[in-house]
Design brief:
142 residues; mainly alpha; 82% helix
Length: 142
C-alpha cells in the first residue's frame, strides 16, 4: 500500500471514529435522561405506591442514570482537553524533528475513554435495576 492510500484510509477511519464517538455520547445522554423520565412517569401513573422493600432499586437506578449523564458530560470536557494536549504533543514532536526524549502520554484521552466506559456501565446497571423495580411493582391486573 502506498503512503497516499494509507493516509486517506487512516483519515477516513479517524472521521468514522469521531462520528461514532459523538453518536455514542448523544445516545447515552438521551437514553439516560429518557430512562429517568420514564421511571418518574412509571411511579406517577402505574405504581404510585411501590412496595417499600423495592424503593432502593429505583433509587439505585436513578443514581446510575445520573452518574451516566455526569460521566458523559465530564467526558465531553476531557475530550476537548485531550485534543488540545494531543495537538501540543504533535507540535512538540514536529519541532523536535520527530524524535522526543520521552514517550508523550495523554492522560486526558485515557480518562475520556474510562468515562465513556463508565457511562455505558452505569446506564446498563440503571436499566437492570429500573427493570427489576418495575417488575416487582407492576399492578397485579396487568
Amino acid at each position: 500500500m502506498d503512503q497516499e492510500t494509507y493516509l486517506k484510509e487512516r483519515s477516513s477511519l479517524i472521521e468514522v471514529e469521531h462520528s461514532s464517538s459523538d453518536q455514542h455520547d448523544k445516545a447515552a445522554l438521551t437514553l439516560s435522561a429518557g430512562a429517568l423520565g420514564l421511571s418518574v412517569t412509571f411511579l406517577e401513573k402505574i405504581a404510585p405506591h411501590p412496595t417499600p422493600c423495592t424503593s432502593w432499586m429505583v433509587l439505585l437506578a436513578w443514581l446510575c442514570f445520573i452518574g451516566s449523564i455526569t460521566s458523559v458530560l465530564a467526558s465531553f470536557h476531557f475530550s476537548q482537553v485531550a485534543c488540545r494536549k494531543q495537538r501540543e504533543i504533535l507540535d512538540d514532536l514536529y519541532r523536535a524533528g520527530g524524535k522526543l526524549n520521552v514517550e508523550p502520554t495523554n492522560s486526558f484521552a485515557v480518562w475520556t475513554e474510562k468515562l465513556n466506559y463508565g457511562s455505558f456501565g452505569l446506564f446498563i446497571v440503571g436499566v437492570l435495576f429500573l427493570t427489576l423495580f418495575a417488575w416487582f411493582n407492576l399492578p397485579k391486573g396487568l
